[in-house]
Design goal:
Layout (H helix, E strand, L loop, with lengths): L2 E8 H6 L1 H10 E8 L14 H9 L1 H15 L6 E6 L5 H10 L4 E6 L17 E4 L2 H7 L2 E2 L14 E9 L6 H14 L4 E7 L7 H13 L1 H13 L12 H9 L1 E6 L9 H8 L3 E4 L15 E3 L26 H10 L9
Parallel strand pairs: 1-2, 1-3, 3-4, 4-5, 5-6, 7-8, 7-9, 9-10, 10-11
Helix pairs in contact: 4-5, 8-9
């Protein structure tokens, strides 16, 4: 008989973890509970932001309803394992309910956002095992470090030299300016790129959203700078209102020679970086913390300054050896988290 596993994630987690869910269903009797994307961040994690306070107060009934529905879905089922996969806080009442049903249930959480952005470290005390994709958070909060999992590319043919598919927002302020400069540099060398970013289209905001954005810009430098940069880049061909599905994104990245990653200042590496390196692709990145990784190779990784993005074109065509990151492919990655398989990324 299969062990019972309770899996909690939000809409984004459900999308990017879809292949993982399929694997789990082969090994476990899986019950999924989904936390809505618009569930507000708790005040401690948001550093007691006045805007978060207002949002929490106006959403109080909805939050209670969501939590009540999640607890009712759990019912009296005795689960063997409870896995939370997300970048958000969890109501402790849900964990208590799971433990009440089965005190021996192993509770596990994997954080895939950095605490420097939203500090969800107050969730740590509720779980038996905690993993994070951010090595600095692992060190600072004494939890297990495990990079994001990798998925195997199906395609090996190169169509694009550089690729980035993501979003442009105040939290990733210099992403679009950097991509625009790289695009111009590639054209000089007759190289190709696939750069697409969804974005905050300020020009089409409703009056209410404009007011909220203006208020945030008064207190947050990233929002005020985004407004300035938006005027400059709003007609860029990189910008798109059409979201790329996770499957389509993987296919395009698989057909690219090199993946570009311009992210907020954090140590954690995104899925696109791990996927690229695990599949023998190269990476151009602004995250200097990648030098601390055991899979770092200067022939595969080029570090740039997002405010002055220049790189050696020859890097794209320099010979390099593939890195063995097979332990991060999804099946093995899940074994580390759920079956206590050896984790060589643990920071001692």
């Amino acid at each position: 008989m299969k062990k019972k596993l309770l899996l909690l994630c939000n809409d984004l987690g459900k999308s990017i973890f879809s292949h993982g869910i399929d694997i789990l269903k082969e090994q476990y009797d899986v019950t999924m509970i989904n936390r809505p994307q618009l569930y507000p961040t708790d005040l401690k994690s948001a550093k007691y932001s006045p805007l978060r306070l207002i949002k929490s107060l106006t959403s109080l009934y909805r939050i209670q309803k969501v939590d009540s529905d999640l607890i009712n879905t759990i019912g009296e089922t005795k689960f063997d394992k409870f896995l939370v996969f997300g970048y958000y806080q969890i109501n402790a009442a849900i964990v208590r309910k799971v433990k009440h049903n089965n005190p021996n249930c192993e509770t596990i959480i994997y954080f895939y956002d950095s605490f420097c952005r939203l500090n969800f470290s107050n969730d740590i005390k509720h779980f038996d095992k905690c993993f994070t994709f951010d090595r600095e958070d692992a060190i600072n909060y004494s939890i297990e470090y495990l990079p994001f999992y990798a998925e195997k590319y199906d395609n090996t043919l190169v169509t694009y030299d550089l690729c980035h598919i993501g979003s442009w927002s105040p939290g990733h302020l210099y992403r679009l300016p950097c991509l625009a400069k790289l695009s111009e540099e590639l054209k000089k060398h007759r190289l190709t790129s696939y750069f697409k970013c969804t974005y905050y289209d300020i020009s089409n905001f409703t009056l209410f959203r404009r007011i909220i954005f203006k208020v945030r810009a008064m207190f947050n430098k990233e929002f005020s700078l985004y407004e300035i940069l938006f005027r400059k880049y709003k007609n860029s061909k990189i910008l798109t209102k059409n979201r790329t599905s996770y499957e389509e994104m993987l296919a395009i990245e698989a057909s690219s020679r090199c993946i570009v990653e311009i992210n907020a200042q954090r140590a954690g590496l995104s899925p696109r970086v791990i996927n690229a390196l695990a599949n023998g692709r190269k990476v151009i990145i602004n995250n200097r913390c990648i030098r601390d990784e055991i899979f770092y190779d200067q022939n595969l990784v080029f570090i740039i300054d997002e405010r002055n993005p220049t790189f050696d074109i020859n890097f794209l065509f320099k010979e390099s050896k593939n890195i063995d990151m097979s332990d991060l492919f999804l099946q093995n990655w899940l074994s580390i988290i759920l079956e206590n398989k050896f984790n060589k990324y643990t920071i001692k």
